[in-house]
Automatic annotation (TrEMBL):
<keyword id="KW-0963">Cytoplasm</keyword>
<protein>
    <recommendedName>
        <fullName>16S rRNA (cytosine(967)-C(5))-methyltransferase</fullName>
        <ecNumber>2.1.1.176</ecNumber>
    </recommendedName>
</protein>
<keyword id="KW-0808">Transferase</keyword>
<dbReference type="GO" id="GO:0006355">
    <property type="term" value="P:regulation of DNA-templated transcription"/>
</dbReference>
<keyword id="KW-0694">RNA-binding</keyword>
<dbReference type="InterPro" id="IPR006027">
    <property type="entry name" value="NusB_RsmB_TIM44"/>
</dbReference>
<comment type="similarity">
    <text>Belongs to the class I-like SAM-binding methyltransferase superfamily. RsmB/NOP family.</text>
</comment>
<feature type="binding site">
    <location>
        <position position="275"/>
    </location>
    <ligand>
        <name>S-adenosyl-L-methionine</name>
    </ligand>
</feature>
<dbReference type="InterPro" id="IPR001678">
    <property type="entry name" value="MeTrfase_RsmB-F_NOP2_dom"/>
</dbReference>
<feature type="binding site">
    <location>
        <begin position="251"/>
        <end position="257"/>
    </location>
    <ligand>
        <name>S-adenosyl-L-methionine</name>
    </ligand>
</feature>
<dbReference type="InterPro" id="IPR049560">
    <property type="entry name" value="MeTrfase_RsmB-F_NOP2_cat"/>
</dbReference>
<dbReference type="InterPro" id="IPR054728">
    <property type="entry name" value="RsmB-like_ferredoxin"/>
</dbReference>
<feature type="active site" description="Nucleophile">
    <location>
        <position position="372"/>
    </location>
</feature>
<dbReference type="GO" id="GO:0005737">
    <property type="term" value="C:cytoplasm"/>
</dbReference>
<feature type="domain" description="SAM-dependent MTase RsmB/NOP-type">
    <location>
        <begin position="161"/>
        <end position="430"/>
    </location>
</feature>
<feature type="binding site">
    <location>
        <position position="301"/>
    </location>
    <ligand>
        <name>S-adenosyl-L-methionine</name>
    </ligand>
</feature>
<dbReference type="InterPro" id="IPR029063">
    <property type="entry name" value="SAM-dependent_MTases_sf"/>
</dbReference>
């Protein structure tokens, strides 16, 4: 089948806010040959990465919007625009292949419309860009609510965050220090012809100059390394893990931080991982298996105690469900799928999980709160609200050379060819 048709069928439900790209893309990849999968991924991710800007162009050129049952055609228009503006595909090939895809979608009637829209963009690109230059959604390539929220929350940082959100993220590895050292693994990468360098903040992180298939990484199948952003790798160090401790990872999927905890301190007495969704819990088991690690994985709601046996934990990681506004580079559909009204209920859920897990922490224990968000409403304000109600909780300032210090915790923003956006706070429980 035509790759553009497969991409349009995958993107239609995402653009219609019925599915995420993480759900739609794996099905699409099964429909094309392995040699075409990289192109399919590039088209899908690229179209979602530039969706706000592409939508502005489509709205300018379309006389009327597509009907709901024709979201696949709308996706075809947008991915055609993406090819013309951002890819190195020759314009004639991009246009002909995209127009032909309408036939495979059983919408032969739309071929003329598609051809006209693509050629109009090609012909009028300069004037269209000039007409739309004053629109924030077009200029910043983000929905208006997100632009306004970032501008309000981070008057000194918002433009840099928006700029980074439209870039492709680097590929970063976490070296399993139970198997090898970072220096040794860097040498193994060099020997394999893979250019890479150590990152500045995590002692286990290596950033590749260019992404590669994980199967090409030395010893990947044997657990020598895992793919994980540098910011996410900071959690294990903040936990202050000691031999013999009981540890809880309260929102564990897909298991990256959990596995890092087990690699970082192999002599823990017991580790529990909680995950609400069974299919995501499967990812935890897969990661544990590849790395030859073990933990008790429980499918349960971290905001409840029905699963808990009453034994308290020395350390708890709450990597709370969030808007994921700090990892838009990796999940570009977040810009489209998230809405402003999502943030308040997410903050309430985060506080509920935090309150619940706090009851499971031993006196003298430590809880690390983390999100991959850049919105204070999900981060420092949650911690502030929590501390007002928990008299036995103490905020421990994080002394570090990464991120920026906040009244509570530290905030990281996505960096050029560096780590993602992330937030951490450390809480201690009174001994008495």
């Amino acid at each position: 089948m035509n790759i553009r048709a497969i991409a349009a069928r995958a993107l239609g439900p995402v653009i219609g806010r019925k599915e995420s790209l993480n759900t739609a893309l794996p099905r699409a990849l099964q429909q094309c040959q392995e040699s075409d999968q990289a192109l399919l991924q590039q088209i899908c991710y690229g179209t979602m990465r530039f969706l706000p800007r592409l939508s502005c162009l489509a709205n300018q050129l379309l006389k009327k919007p597509f009907k709901p049952q024709d979201q696949d055609l709308y996706a075809l228009v947008l991915l055609g625009f993406y090819q013309l503006l951002e890819m190195r595909v020759p314009a004639h090939a991009a246009i002909s292949e995209t127009v032909e895809a309408a036939s495979q979608l059983n919408k032969e009637w739309a071929k003329g419309l598609l051809n006209a829209l693509l050629r109009n963009l090609q012909r009028e690109q300069g004037s269209l860009f000039e007409q739309l230059s004053e629109q924030p959604e077009f200029h910043y390539n983000h929905p208006q609510w997100m632009i306004a929220k970032l501008q309000h929350n981070w008057p000194d940082h918002w433009q840099a965050v928006l700029e980074q959100n439209s870039q492709q993220p680097p590929m970063t590895l976490r070296v399993n220090q139970q198997k090898t050292s970072r220096d040794n693994y860097l040498q193994q990468l060099r020997d394999a012809g893979i250019a890479a360098s150590a990152t500045p903040y995590s002692t286990t992180a290596i950033q590749l100059d260019s992404p590669v298939d994980v199967n090409l990484l030395p010893g990947f199948a044997y657990g020598f390394a895992s793919v994980q952003d540098e910011a996410a790798q900071l959690s294990a160090g903040l936990m202050d893990l000691q031999p013999g401790q009981r540890v809880l990872d309260a929102c564990a999927a897909p298991g990256g931080k959990l596995c890092h905890i087990l690699e970082h301190q192999p002599d823990l007495s017991h580790v529990t991982a909680i995950e609400l969704e069974p299919n995501r819990a499967d990812r935890i088991e897969e990661n544990l298996s590849r790395l030859n690690l073990s933990a008790e994985v429980i499918i349960a709601d971290a905001a409840t105690r029905t699963w808990w046996d009453g034994a308290e934990y020395d350390r708890i990681l709450v990597d709370a469900p969030c808007s994921a506004a700090g990892v838009i580079r990796r999940n570009p559909d977040i810009k489209h799928l998230r809405q402003n009204e999502d943030i308040k209920p997410l903050a309430e859920l985060q506080l509920a999980i935090l309150d619940n897990c706090w009851q499971m922490l031993k006196p003298g224990g430590r809880l690390v709160y983390a999100t991959c968000s850049v919105f204070p409403q999900e981060n420092e304000r949650v911690i502030e609200r929590f501390l007002k109600t928990q008299t036995d909780a103490c905020h421990l300032p994080i002394e570090a050379n990464w991120g920026i210090e906040r009244p509570y915790g530290r905030q990281l923003f996505p960096q050029p060819q560096g780590h993602d956006g992330f937030y951490y706070a450390v809480l201690l429980k009174d001994q008495n």
